[in-house]
Design goal:
The chain has seven helices and two strands; from the N terminus they run αααββαααα. By secondary structure, it is mainly alpha-helical. Strands 1-2 form a two-stranded antiparallel sheet. Strand 1 and strand 2 form a beta hairpin. The longest helix has 14 residues. The radius of gyration is 22 Å and the shape is elongated.
């Protein structure tokens, strides 16, 4: 049987290149699974050694600049920790695109008119809840009564 010479392999310059957003999401996912702050080497190992250490450092630095990860000095290196999830990173990218446009109103109007009905309803619900600050939060993250509430 003839060898398949059309399929790129690791190390092959024809291998599929991942986009920056995809790499950032992978690194962020690894950090979210970490039991605590992690080194760049630890992150690299969890990515199956698929990326060079310098590439992992570059991605971590970019995520830090976007406030998606935090870092603390540990000797001569850093320990990294996820400060955002994939949804937060996507929202940041969306905000950056919006901020880069001269006519924000037109961009937002175009975005909203292109939404699927379910997405439009979800957005409407989220906007309604964000514009009603006097209502107490609901759900599992809602805080209990404070000490000052109990005293009055």
């Amino acid at each position: 049987m003839a060898e398949d010479t059309n399929t790129p392999t690791a190390g092959d310059p024809r291998a599929r290149r991942r986009g920056q957003g995809e790499l950032e999401a992978q690194v962020l996912a690894v950090l979210q699974q970490a039991p605590g702050p992690a080194t760049a080497g630890w992150v690299q190992e969890r990515l199956d050694g698929d990326l060079a250490y310098t590439t992992v450092m570059t991605i971590l630095s970019r995520l830090h600049a976007k406030s998606a990860v935090s870092r603390t000095r540990s000797g001569r290196s850093y320990l990294w920790q996820a400060a955002s999830d994939a949804a937060g990173l996507a929202a940041l990218r969306m905000r950056r695109v919006l901020d880069g446009e001269a006519d924000r109103d037109a961009v937002l109007a175009s975005f909203v008119t292109a939404l699927l009905p379910h997405d439009e309803e979800l957005l409407r619900t989220l906007l309604d809840s964000a514009s009603a600050p006097d209502l107490p939060p609901t759900g599992p993250a809602a805080p209990g009564p404070s000490a000052t509430d109990r005293e009055s």
